[in-house]
């Protein structure tokens, strides 16, 4: 017997994420300008032809007035985006508070907030309440736009309650949830006061996805140890209902990066950069200015390398692009001053009148400038303390087919599981080891660089973002089909 094919042509995909793929800037009472952001998720879904994707999320701005909301909704509709309006208090408690001060550090093994980050238990509770309230607001917007046959794909730690609320609205809705961060060991997750509620809310989904097999395994262990449910090779079972749990490693739109290198503007940038850093090896870091990225540790390792290798002074430069992020959260503000202090000290110590060892930029670069920078780099340093995947490492590899530079990669980034064979893997907490890997990378023979690059390049070009999205959604469809078949039998 054959499984009936229930998929309609060009199925609608509702992608729900905290942040919409466009950023909105208010130009007047009823006028908005929108800019598409070039994040991984956006390019992944732009390339998926099989589905008609619509986005639901927060536009990143507070719009208290109805006229403004109406105008923004209209402008966003042209980009197939649907806004969820969150007021300032919710943003403070849900986004800055529960998401970025509690879940984000915990999922990256940095633990729960200490006294100075969380004054009272009451504030934890009110942040959790705001988290649930925000998730309900997202659910209401999804429900309003849902049509029979749609699939709903919820993203990330901001929306762990969304599967539960959506299923409460409509148990037939096909709901998938994907986590872009690591899911920590169950021993870490169990420290969270709301540990069980969060797990149960996620389990309401039909399919739960992670970047790596380890994260999926941690999630299943948390469900078995904390909730006492049964873990199977397929997922988690609760009273005969299976929530499928699996790994779906994301990729990038590698073609977009490779094509960009031929654009005249990028070629011009490359020429300028080569001239500017002639006679020096270029090392590069590109990170959001976030504590999980290990920027202070990376810079201290570079200092150690300079200390131990005086012959390299003035022959190597570290370019660190640190993109400001979540600047309302005190932890992030502290990190910014800490990084500035270390960079200043090292440049004072090793700089000369004509050159400094570290160029540190607190801003993002446009896509073309970034591609040029990737292309001229000799050694990329991706030394996150923890990272769900880390696509900077993929982007670097995609832009290196001419130069064949070396990637130094943290063993605690999800990408270590896919680029481990070609990269030099390091423990970012071990500054001596990272300093030694810089030495190894700068002195590596051309043959070894070529061999390592080839391994990585093949992976990056063969495991694209489009393929990631298609695999997840088709598996989500199958999961639901199977569930329906079980009911029919
Ligand atoms: C990580 C998260 C994303 C988030 C992004 C930027 O990659 O997994 O969900 O959108 O960081 O952070 P922000 O807080 O600015 O949205």
UniProtKB/TrEMBL annotation:
GO terms for molecular function: alpha,alpha-trehalose-phosphate synthase (UDP-forming) activity; trehalose-phosphatase activity. It comes from the Eukaryota. GO terms for biological process: trehalose biosynthetic process. Signal peptide: none annotated. Keywords: Glycosyltransferase, Transferase. In the N-terminal section; belongs to the glycosyltransferase 20 family. In the C-terminal section; belongs to the trehalose phosphatase family. This is alpha,alpha-trehalose-phosphate synthase (UDP-forming). The lineage of its organism: Eukaryota, Viridiplantae, Streptophyta, Embryophyta, Tracheophyta.
């Amino acid at each position: 017997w054959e499984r009936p094919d229930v998929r309609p042509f060009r199925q609608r995909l509702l992608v729900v994420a905290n942040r919409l793929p466009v950023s909105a800037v208010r130009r007047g009472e009823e006028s908005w300008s929108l800019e598409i952001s070039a994040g991984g998720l956006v390019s992944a879904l732009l390339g998926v032809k099989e589905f008609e994707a619509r986005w639901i999320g927060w536009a990143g701005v507070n719009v208290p007035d109805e006229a403004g909301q109406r105008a923004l909704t209209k402008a966003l509709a042209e980009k197939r985006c649907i806004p969820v309006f969150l007021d300032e208090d919710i943003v403070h408690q849900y986004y800055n508070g529960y998401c970025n001060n509690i879940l984000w550090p915990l999922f990256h093994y940095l633990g729960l907030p200490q006294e100075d980050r969380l004054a009272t238990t009451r504030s934890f509770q009110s942040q959790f309440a705001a988290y649930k309230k925000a998730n309900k607001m997202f659910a209401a917007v999804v429900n309003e736009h849902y049509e029979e046959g749609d699939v709903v794909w919820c993203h990330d730690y901001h929306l762990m309650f969304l599967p539960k609320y959506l299923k409460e609205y409509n148990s037939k809705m096909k709901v998938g949830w994907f986590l872009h961060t690591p899911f920590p060991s169950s021993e870490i997750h169990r420290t969270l006061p709301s540990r069980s509620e969060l797990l149960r809310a996620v389990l309401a989904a039909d399919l739960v996805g992670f970047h790596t097999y380890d994260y999926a395994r941690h999630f299943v262990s948390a469900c078995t140890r904390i909730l006492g449910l049964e873990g199977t090779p397929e997922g988690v079972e609760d009273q005969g209902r299976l929530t499928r749990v699996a790994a779906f490693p994301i990729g990038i739109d590698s073609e977009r990066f490779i094509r960009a290198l031929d654009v005249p503007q990028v070629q011009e940038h490359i020429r300028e950069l080569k001239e500017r850093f002639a006679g020096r090896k270029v090392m590069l870091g590109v990170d959001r200015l976030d504590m999980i990225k290990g920027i202070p540790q990376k810079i201290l390792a570079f200092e150690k390398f300079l200390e131990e290798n005086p012959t390299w002074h003035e022959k190597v430069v570290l370019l660190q692009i640190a993109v400001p992020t979540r600047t309302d959260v005190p932890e992030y503000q502290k990190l910014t001053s800490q990084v500035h202090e270390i960079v200043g000290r090292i440049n004072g110590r090793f700089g000369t009148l004509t050159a400094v060892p570290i160029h540190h930029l607190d801003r993002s670069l446009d896509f073309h400038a970034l591609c040029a920078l990737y292309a001229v780099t000799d050694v990329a340093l991706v030394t996150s303390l923890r990272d769900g995947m880390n696509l900077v490492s993929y982007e670097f590899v995609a832009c290196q087919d001419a130069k064949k530079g070396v990637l130094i990669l943290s063993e605690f980034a999800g990408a270590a599981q896919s680029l481990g064979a070609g990269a030099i893997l390091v423990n970012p907490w071990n500054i001596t080891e990272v300093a030694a890997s810089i030495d190894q990378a700068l002195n590596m023979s051309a043959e070894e660089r070529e061999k390592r690059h080839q391994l990585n390049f093949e992976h990056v070009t063969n495991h694209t973002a489009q393929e990631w999205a298609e695999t997840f959604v088709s598996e989500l469809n199958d999961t639901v089909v199977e569930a329906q078949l079980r009911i029919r039998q």
